[in-house]
Amino acid sequence: MFLSQEEIYKLTGKKRRTQQKQILDAKGITYFENGIDELVILKAHVERVLSGEVGATGGTGPDFDKLEEGVVSPKPKTRDKYMPTYVHWQNGAWRFKTPKHLLPYVPERKTWIRLGVDKQEALKEYAKLMGNLSNESAMSKLFNRYEAEVIPTKAPRDPA
Question: Can you name the residues that pair with 88 across neighbouring β-strands?
């Protein structure tokens, strides 16, 4: 039904996905990338293009909408190597999984905090969250509390 990664390599002669996409585009072969960043190509479409049934610039191409949902893409990765530690893709959004050592400093002690759907938006929210958490570290809290509660009760020193 679909070309394997080895068959895509044989078809294009390239191992890198970006180079494979360039060659497929040049030959007019329709493809898409699944949830784990692999190219998905229908064998029947490739056969039609290579046999000349469908021209390199024309043709309707395969109807990917008619494919069964579970067949096309396996479960996507929840971690992205370009995202910070503890940031995962879950339930259609980027989320921060609060580690146990930070849980007391998180508002409402939430284990999962939604950061956003877009990567850039998620990174901005992550930066805000980390700024708030680092400002409220244990020693910082202690010093702030001491400054607010104890220092005002101290009498000023007499210059002697």
Answer: 79, 95
- The DSSP letter of residue 6 is H
Q: Which long-range contacts (CB under 8 A, 24 or more apart) does 12-19 make?
A: none
Give domain limits for the chain: 5-58, 87-146
**3-class secondary structure per residue, 30-84:** CCEECCCCCEECEHHHHHHHHHCCCCCCCCCCCCHHHCCHHHHCCCCCCECCCCC
Residue 149 backbone dihedrals phi, psi, to 5 degrees = -105, -40
Q: 2 burial class (0-12, 13-18, 19+ CB within 10 angstroms)?
A: buried
Show the tokens assigned to 105: 């400093």
pLDDT per position as a tens digit, 75-133: 445 667 778 888 888 888 999 888 887 777 777 778 898 999 988 898 888 888 877 66
Q: Tokens 């021209």 label which residue?
A: 55
116 — alpha (psi -120 to 50), left (phi > 0) or beta? Answer: left
**What six digits make up the tokens of 53?**
């049934």
